[in-house]
Amino acid sequence: MLWGMTRLTARGRTRLALPPRARFWLGVILALVLGYLIALGQSAVVRPPLVIGQDAVPPSGQAQGVTSTLENEGGAFINIKPSGEAKTLLVYYPGGLVRPQAYEWLGRALAADGVQTVIPVFPLDLAVTGINRADALIKKFGAGKTVVIVGHSLGGAMAAQYAKGHTDQLGGMILMGAYPAGNVSLKDTSLPVLSLLAENDRVADPANVRDGLNRLPASAQLTVIPGSVHSFFGRYGPQKGDGLPTVTHAAAEAEILSAVRAFLAKLPTP
Predict the structure, then answer these.
(1) Quick one: which of 32, 120, 177, 194 has the fewest CB in 10 Å?
(2) What does the alpha-carbon distance between residue 28 and residue 33 come to, in Å, rounded to a whole number?
(3) Nearest-5° angle of CA 56, CA 230, CA 59?
(4) pLDDT tens per residue, range 17-71
């Protein structure tokens, strides 16, 4: 028996009795662990403010007459509209735990081409909580337009899952650093698909993105964004576990915008 470490209880059994100093440091460690867990929980439940237009000027410059508003249709969403009549509707599913305004830059850039972009606000910023959010938005805004569903990261996987059961409503799909889940296949459909892969992405494994092409139509187009990383698809800062970029964020955005514009230009009109 170690003196000072165990003691006899009323029933004759021994139990650990730590010295005061050890009990103090154990309490400190437990408090730190508890504080860390609470902080993690708060970051997931208490989301940062949703601020429209805070950092939304695209690399190609601001188109004239673009409006960006926070509205509600089956839940809150950002509605980015061109000055004239929209010919295309983009429904954008954000990445996991990413605030929707991180993708406002793309919607504002595409507005110059007559594209309306709607970005749903999901509970906890997780698209998995509302895979069918696109339904209400397409019903409200999609008439007479080419409807394209877009998703980044987890949002891309959920966009692919939505597309699987709604190909008749869609004119195309764009995945950004994303791929369909293993049980989701659009291989037997004729849906036009663009898959964007950031060259230095370490969040969405490039091998998994390429493997995802096996669950997409044979016509699916893979475009690599040179020197880019996973977080460069949006504007939300560096992401844990991501790779190191070898280009500027602005240069990567210009490449992304160019690839998206080229893809949309080839889509058939309703």
Answers:
(1) 32
(2) 9
(3) 30
(4) 667 766 655 555 655 445 444 444 444 467 788 888 876 777 776 778 899 999 9
- Give residue limits of the domains in the chain: 17-45, 67-266
Q: Does domain 67-266 have CATH number 3.40.50.1820?
A: yes
Question: What is the sign, positive or negative, of the torsion defined by CA atoms of 204, 205, 210, 213?
Answer: negative
Strand ordering across the sheet containing 172-176: 67-72, 76-81, 115-120, 88-93, 146-152, 172-176, 193-198, 221-225
Contact call for residues 228 and 201 (beta carbons, < 8 A): yes
Q: Distance (Å, rounded) from C-alpha 149 to C-alpha 1?
A: 68
Predicted confidence at residue 145, as pLDDT, reads 98
Q: In which residue are the tokens 């560096």 written?
A: 238
Please name the residue ranges forming H helices in the chain.
20-45, 104-110, 134-141, 154-164, 206-212, 249-266
CB atoms within 10 A of CB 109: 27
Place of tokens 């019903």: 139
The pTM is what? 0.84
